Amino acid sequence: MAPGPGFSDEKNETLCESESTVYVHNPHLDGMKDDILYHFNLGTSTHNLPAMFGDVKFVCVGGSPWRMKSFIEYIAGELSLEDPKAEYPNICAGTDRYAMYKIGPVLSVSHGMGIPSIAIMLHELIKLLYHARCTDVTIFRIGTSGGLGLEPGTVVVTKQSVDATFLPRLEQVILGNTVVRSTDLDQGLAEELLQCSKDLGQFETVIGNTMCTMDFYEGQARLDGAFCSYTEKDKQDYLTKAYESGVRNIEMESSVFAAMCKLSALKAAVVCVTLLDRQKGDQLISSHEVLHSYQQRPQILVGHLIKKMLQTSASVAVLDKKTVLQAPTT
Amino acid sequence: MAPGPGFSDEKNETLCESESTVYVHNPHLDGMKDDILYHFNLGTSTHNLPAMFGDVKFVCVGGSPWRMKSFIEYIAGELSLEDPKAEYPNICAGTDRYAMYKIGPVLSVSHGMGIPSIAIMLHELIKLLYHARCTDVTIFRIGTSGGLGLEPGTVVVTKQSVDATFLPRLEQVILGNTVVRSTDLDQGLAEELLQCSKDLGQFETVIGNTMCTMDFYEGQARLDGAFCSYTEKDKQDYLTKAYESGVRNIEMESSVFAAMCKLSALKAAVVCVTLLDRQKGDQLISSHEVLHSYQQRPQILVGHLIKKMLQTSASVAVLDKKTVLQAPTT
């Protein structure tokens, strides 16, 4: 059941070479009669996952359920798939842990805040894509972040996700032992997103490192938490070191997102807007309207790339069809 | 503004000796004109926090927003404070990060899943209680967990919250340096909860150590995640070691809850029901109804203790009043 490197899989052999399966790496799944994706309120014996999700080519994840619903409405419009009467039902309506929406080839899923919360969701999402036999899936995290040396509203596409000591790694504890995982992301996809921003010309986008922390207050050197044992100078020194190491924004989910997507061969990108410049402050004092407009930027950027990729694959499909049709006559 | 040990505070001097303030430990808060509790959508300049929350004596927190709404409905009935027409509005309705409900002296707040998610909430909750000038606050985490060597449905009141190597500590990274914090909880409160369970006689409750992990699948030795590189025997050996060290259940928030409540002098307890015995399986195969009834047990236990504590303090108040009234005649 786990067609990773070194595994063979019957289904894989029937696929075109260009198709890339979503990998699980767990031999135990073979022996399971059913698989309950508990935090999605979905399961292999209760839902026809290939029928529900087999056509998914793009997954977009973000912390807030409201934002992920707003994304599905936005992308439906962009892809001309919207139905004025459509309600875009929450596929995970039976639970309040995560929210999930789908339109055509695009799935939108919320993940809450922090590494553990997104990790639970990704374990179940990767199994869902695997059970649904999805191929060639691209995944984006769209989020908010604190910026370093950037105008608020700037979008950062992550080059490398680094930890609080600026190293590109994720430490995970498995059976009490620390395992270190790579947090590499797809550089080609990051470049494509940067190009989309140039095409759009609506807002500034940069490629930079993203620091992923376990805490929003003390973990990000904020001075406005319930506890703070360091000075303003300590904070500034730390953020300066982060900037000098290449960090351009700070959030709380990118490292495990990068690590798990890499393990499962999902082409992945992290696209976060900066809501403030952390070297100038800690509190989010911009108006609700301004913050809301900033939060739409990662959606616009990712929406533009999805549209572009679908148009390209449609052209390729047309071209393939023409080649096939022309073949007998040449 | 931070009346911790070694600090003096004018407000404190006017309090009775028996009253205990909720502490922040952050000298920087003094210099802030406003404090925006961003993830609650509340703030000191936009809301009258003392008027809204000054009477809070009990805070109950849990992962799921639905469960925290259900708790406020339940406790309203228990304390005979329910209004059949009441809607119990979500105080944080302007955001979807957390949900918050209040009835009389009881506040109910959701915290999502995992240490980072509950830590953000607790930073803002502790500041909220501080700004509202609350005193003598007791806080409970009610949650779900995997059990070890216990019948599913057993409630575990946490003695010590331990990490994945069974040590009672929380490692936090602050300015890139690892800081170790104690995860001690109030033993008297744990004993009182155990006594409540005996009074009720409705379900089994034990006091035991709770292992707090960063991941639900690999971090808890599950065999059913998207990735698994260990055997069934490795899993059983690890869980046996956990059991032998005193661990009776596994969840994902107790360590930072214990550490932050200790730092802020909040009397705290963790009360989680076990949904399955992890030595017998990984998947949650019980019916929705059974799982739902299990999840009500921590609510019932904590609700019973809150009622008992309020009755005791009411008796003390009556007694005090009598003493005062009788004083001139003796």
Structural class of chain A: alpha/beta
Work out the oligomeric state of the chains in this entry: homodimer
Percentage beta strand of chain A? 15-25%
Estimated helix fraction of chain A: 25-40%
Compute the number of helices of chain A.
Answer: 8
What is the arithmetic mean of pLDDT of chain A?
Answer: 91
- Largest sheet of chain A, order of strands side by side? 6-11-10-7-12
Largest interface: A-B, 68 and 68 residues
Overall form of chain A: globular
Protein name (chains A, B): Uridine phosphorylase
Organism (chains A, B): Oncorhynchus tshawytscha (Chinook salmon)
Keywords (chains A, B): Glycosyltransferase, Transferase
EC number (chains A, B): 2.4.2.3
Walk me through what this model shows:
The structure is a homodimer of 330-residue chains. By secondary structure, chain A is α/β, with parallel strands linked by helices. Chain A is 35% helix and 22% strand. Chain A has helices at residues 10-13, 49-53, 65-78, 115-131, 187-200, 232-244, 254-263, 288-326; strands spanning 36-37, 42-43, 58-62, 100-103, 106-110, 138-147, 155-162, 169-174, 177-182, 205-212, 247-251, 267-277. In chain A, the strands form three sheets. A five-stranded mixed beta barrel of chain A has the order 6-11-10-7-12, surrounded by four helices. Chain A is globular and about 60 Å long. Residues 1-17 of chain A have low confidence and may be disordered. Chains A and B meet through helix 4, strand 8 and helix 6 of A and helix 4, strand 8 and helix 6 of B. Chains A, B: It comes from Oncorhynchus tshawytscha (Chinook salmon). Chains A, B: It catalyses: uridine + phosphate = alpha-D-ribose 1-phosphate + uracil. Chains A, B: Phosphate binds at residues 97, 141-144. Chains A, B: Pathway: Pyrimidine metabolism; UMP biosynthesis via salvage pathway; uracil from uridine (phosphorylase route): step 1/1.
